[in-house]
Design a protein that fits this description.
By secondary structure, this protein is mainly alpha-helical. Among the domains are: 33 residues, no CATH class; 28 residues, no CATH class; 37 residues, no CATH class. Helix content is 18%, strand content 3%. It is built from five helices and two strands. A two-stranded parallel sheet has the order 1-2. The radius of gyration is 66 Å and the shape is rod-shaped. The N and C termini lie far apart (183 Å). The model has no long low-confidence stretch (mean pLDDT 90). The structure holds fe (ii) ion (FE2). The site of fe (ii) ion has 3 residues, from loops. Fe (ii) ion (FE2) binds next to loops.
């Protein structure tokens, strides 16, 4: 509505009913009723303060800023508790939401062996499925030990040749062989020819039946002076 100034009654005018009624008409014509409303367009000056339900500001940007939502009309800035972005990807980028930024590993990453801190890598994954070397060996059929491969698992159970031979029972008797120094029963000589170098034991056991050395010559023996070994038989031929 438009304002209308109603001049106060000064008393200069003659007080008459006409003048009084005219005054009433002037007031009714130019004044708003005690209870009345306005459209927003009627507010043409000043700024409605926060205390009256306004923003106290003259722009949306300033109003937002006054509310602590950033001096902008765009996406709520990170500095004001927003993401500063209008889509999820931008929000993640602005907030530093990367694997490294949030202390996470990338989807594709690697580990050092020292990072495997629990569980046991199964055989199907290239592990042993065991938690100790001896158990791993045992699982492989190589004996529950970290020492020399036991005889029971196809080894020698020893760390040197002599121990290996001993553990495997590799002795002349164990493998059906004769000892390096041994005797042979005459009955086992069943073929072949004794070489010329084989001689009988010289002995004075003349009354014992046994092999004796026999030699021959054309010279007669001379009793008391010819030298023959004990038990040697000498034949004279012509
Ligand atoms: Fe990982």
């Amino acid at each position: 509505m438009s304002n209308q100034i109603v001049t106060p009654y000064t008393g200069d005018e003659a007080v008459s009913l006409d003048n009084f009624n005219r005054r009433i008409e002037e007031i009714n014509a130019g004044a708003a009723p005690a209870e009345h409303e306005h459209t927003a367009e009627d507010v043409t000056s000043g700024v409605l303060p926060v205390a009256r339900g306004g923003t106290g500001q003259t722009s949306l940007q300033a109003a937002r800023n006054a509310m602590g939502l950033g001096n902008t009309t765009g996406a709520l800035p990170v500095a004001n508790g927003g993401t500063g972005a209008s889509d999820a990807a931008g929000a993640r980028a602005n907030l530093g939401i990367t694997p490294g930024g949030i202390g996470a590993a990338a989807a594709s990453h690697q580990h050092g062996a020292g990072d495997i801190a629990s569980g046991t890598l199964p055989v199907s994954r290239g592990g042993t499925g065991q938690a100790s070397l001896s158990a791993a060996r045992n699982a492989m059929g190589l004996g529950n030990t970290t020492g020399a491969l036991p005889v029971a698992n196809g080894g020698t159970g020893a760390s040197d040749a002599a121990g290996a031979r001993a553990n495997l029972g590799i002795t002349p008797g164990g493998i059906g062989a004769a000892a390096a120094s041994h005797s042979q029963a005459a009955s086992t000589i069943t073929a072949g020819t004794l070489p010329a170098g084989v001689v009988a034991t010289v002995g004075a056991d003349y009354t014992t039946s046994r092999l004796r050395n026999i030699s021959a010559g054309t010279g007669d023996l001379t009793a008391g002076s010819s030298a023959l070994g004990n038990g040697v038989i000498y034949l004279v031929y012509e």
